[in-house]
Hints:
Elements: E1 2-10, H1 19-33, E2 37-53, E3 56-68, H2 73-82, E4 86-93
Antiparallel strand pairs: 1-3, 1-4, 2-3
Amino acid sequence: MRRYELVVIISPQVADEAVPETIDRLVRRPIESQGGVCEEVSHWGRRKLAYPIARHLEGNYVLTQLQLEPLQTKELERGLRISEEVIRHLLVRMEE
Length: 96
C-alpha cells in the first residue's frame, strides 16, 4: 500500500455539527471499505477560500493521511467528485 495525503473542502452549507459525520461518511468509510487505513484525520475548521469556488467564499478544510492501494484511489476520488457536499479535493502521493 502507498501513503497518500488528501485535502477535502466541505461546503459551508453543511452545519458545523454535521461536519464530523460528513467526514466519516465521505472519507473514513470509503477508505476502510477498500482495505485502506486512515492514519490521521485533521479537521482544520471553517476557513476563507483564496477565491470563490462554486459561489462559496469559505469552506470546512479536512486533511487526511492514509494508506491505500493505487488502484483504489480512483474509486475514492470518484466518490468525492460526485458528492455535492465536497467543493474541492486533492489527493497526493506522499514520499516514502
